[in-house]
Amino acid sequence: MSGQNERYDSGSDTSAEHPISIPSEVPILPLRDTVLFPNSFIPLAVARESSVRLIEEAIASDALVGVFTQREAATEKPAQDDLYPIGTVTRIHKMLKLPDGSLRLIVQG
């Protein structure tokens, strides 16, 4: 990478008048100490290598992502049992990739 920050903007219409179709399976992004509610926007910092890959793949395929909060923030590789059972489907609206490889996102539940 050239040291420049990479940016992504979905350009999506966020209007509730345009419902989205939710696939039967979506990739899961575990969140630490954060809860995303439906129809809300939040900024996220993503640094875990597996999560960065998940986000990059979701952006490349314009996929929705499921977000679930981890029961324990210290868990590095959370399994399904390490996540709360209720999550939110989210769309990634903006992404900034920093020189250290971490991501900053704006997502909407």
UniProtKB/TrEMBL annotation:
Biased segments, Basic and acidic residues type: 1-10
Q: Quote the protein name from its UniProt record.
A: Lon N-terminal domain-containing protein
Q: What is the lineage of its organism?
A: unclassified sequences, metagenomes, ecological metagenomes
The residues covered by the Lon N-terminal domain are: 26-109
Q: Which stretches does the entry tag as region Disordered?
A: 1-23
